[in-house]
Amino acid sequence: MCLAPELKSRIDSPWDKFWSGGMSNPLQSIEQMSYLIFTKGGSTEKVWFYDMDADGYSLDDKRTFIDGNGDIPDIIQHYRNRKKENPTDRKGKCFFVPISEIKENGFDLSISRYKEIEYEEVQYEKPEIIIEKIEMLEKEIQTGLRDLKSLLK
């Protein structure tokens, strides 16, 4: 990677944006792409990342129009204010990563390398209780079926 031009940011987005219009996708296993924004001159001190979820079109092969915007207005707003906001919370949609950390990671620009994901612990009922509920539902179904059969006679 050449660090002479300043790497301003990286924006991840859905890959299939370029495979619309009825064209079959020979690279179906690729799920996303990234935009790298450089500025001529300067040096790279930190890189701004934005985790783009949507571009305003459905993510299936049809690319159906949803709103035509998706995250794009938010990206533009945060990009314009990135220096003032100086986002460092890696749980957010956008954040800065120092170039030193990117160098330590072999210049890996995958957002998943730097983004922190919070996982919520889910509490499930004991299996015995779940089975009991299923059996109660099954009894209701059987009762309903008996009632239906009696109507057919």
Question: How does this structure look, described?
Answer:
With 153 residues, the protein is of the alpha+beta class. It has one domain: Vaccinia Virus protein VP39 (Rossmann fold). Helices cover 32% and strands 18% of the residues. It is built from five helices and four strands, in the order βββααβααα. The chain has helices at residues 72-80, 82-85, 99-104, 111-114, 127-152; strands spanning 6-14, 32-39, 46-51, 94-98. It has a four-stranded mixed β-sheet. The N and C termini lie far apart (79 Å).
Question: The CATH topology, please?
Answer: Rossmann fold
Element string (H = helix, E = strand): EEEHHEHHH
Q: Main sheet?
A: 4 strands, mixed
Structural class: alpha+beta
Shape: elongated
The CATH architecture can be named as 3-Layer(aba) Sandwich
Overall residue-averaged pLDDT value: 82
How far apart are the first and last residues' alpha carbons, in Å? 79 Å
The fraction of residues assigned to DSSP E strands is 15-25%
CATH class label:
Alpha Beta
Which percent bin holds the helix content?
A: 25-40%
Low-confidence stretches: 14-30
Order of strands in the sheet with most strands: 2-1-3-4
Number of helices: 5
Secondary structure layout plus pairing:
Layout: E1 6-14, E2 32-39, E3 46-51, H1 72-80, H2 82-85, E4 94-98, H3 99-104, H4 111-114, H5 127-152
Parallel strand pairs: 1-3
Antiparallel strand pairs: 1-2, 3-4
